[in-house]
Design goal:
Layout (H helix, E strand, L loop, with lengths): L11 H10 L54 E2 L10 H5 L1 E2 L2 H10 L1 E4 L15 H14 L13 H8 L2 E5 L12 E5 L20 H17 L9 E3 L5 H14 L8 H15 L2 E3 L1
Bound molecules: zinc ion.
Length: 283
């Protein structure tokens, strides 16, 4: 049973923010999809087992026949490991390397439902496959001066432990999870130009919100559904999906090293932390 929530009467600002990271809002006009069919949930056949990446020696790569790293002139390839980036803006100005993409496919079963008809991967700003890879790069690059309140792992490693993969599908709402413990992201969300930057002040959203959505849905895999009404959490202490979404933004605002985020990005993260807090009935 997917954990979903449906809430329609929200203030405009909240709606704008939640367009992208609430696991639930049918805020874009979509045709609700039929229930997922078993065949749709099948991953591509496994490929060779990787041994060259120490952090995940036993995982199996999921070959993606469309994986052909193309670069646009505006985006530079990087040879800098994600964990060493000076700023998220610098990171996102570069394309993921083939090695990085392979790492993500080893760490996660990333499945782009062919029924959605997504364009092939390309390193351009509105490519939905790129948005997923950039989100994972950013998660890998985010580090904090205090442990996250709900895990002793890094954000990226926590995600690896919480879910087995990420599915992009034409679904009315994003949700957790399919029968293979993969979070399901509404594919329509991922073609937005705002996701090409960590935070786009003009739209008020950015890739930080896609990561917020991923964090939210992945938490459902660990802790279950919402506990206040259909879509809110009862308390912050229970550290539910909204609680960890709140702390993700709060830690980004207050516990990342100088320079990793711009002041504007920190302010946005703090505002988004407050928005998530607003979904907790007794914070
Ligand atoms: Zn939720």
């Amino acid at each position: 049973m997917p954990w979903g929530h449906r809430r329609f009467s929200l203030p405009l600002l909240t709606i704008l923010l939640l367009i992208n990271f609430a696991c639930n809002l049918p805020s874009l006009t979509v045709t609700p999809s039929d229930s997922p069919r078993a065949a749709d949930l099948t991953s591509p056949p496994s490929g060779s087992t990787r041994t060259s990446i120490p952090s995940s020696p036993t995982r199996t790569a999921h070959p993606n026949p469309t994986l052909a790293v193309e670069r646009t002139p505006a985006l530079k390839p990087t040879s800098i490991p994600p964990t060493l980036v000076g700023s998220l803006d610098d990171l996102l100005a570069t394309c993921p390397t083939a090695d990085e993409i392979e790492r993500f496919q080893i760490d996660f079963d990333i499945f782009f439902d062919p029924e959605v008809g997504l364009p092939p991967y390309a390193c351009d700003d509105t490519n939905p496959r790129l948005a997923i890879y950039q989100a994972l790069r950013a998660m890998s690059a985010l580090y904090f001066d205090q442990p996250l309140p709900w895990t002793s792992y890094s954000l990226y490693d926590w995600l690896r432990g919480a879910v087995s993969g990420i599915v992009l599908r034409a679904t009315e709402i994003s949700y957790c999870c399919d029968d293979q413990n993969r979070i399901v992201i509404k594919s329509e969300l991922l073609s937005q130009p705002s996701y090409s930057s960590w935070y786009d002040a003009q739209s008020g959203i950015g890739l930080m919100d896609l990561v917020g959505l991923i964090v939210h849905e992945a938490r459902h895999a660990e802790i279950g559904g919402h506990t206040c009404g259909n879509s809110d959490d009862a308390t912050l202490e229970e550290m539910g999906a909204w609680g960890v979404q709140h702390y993700y933004f709060l830690w980004m605002a207050e516990h990342t090293p100088p320079g990793l985020l711009t002041p504007t990005q920190r302010e946005a993260a703090m505002a988004h932390a407050e928005t998530a807090l607003g979904r907790i009935c007794n914070p």
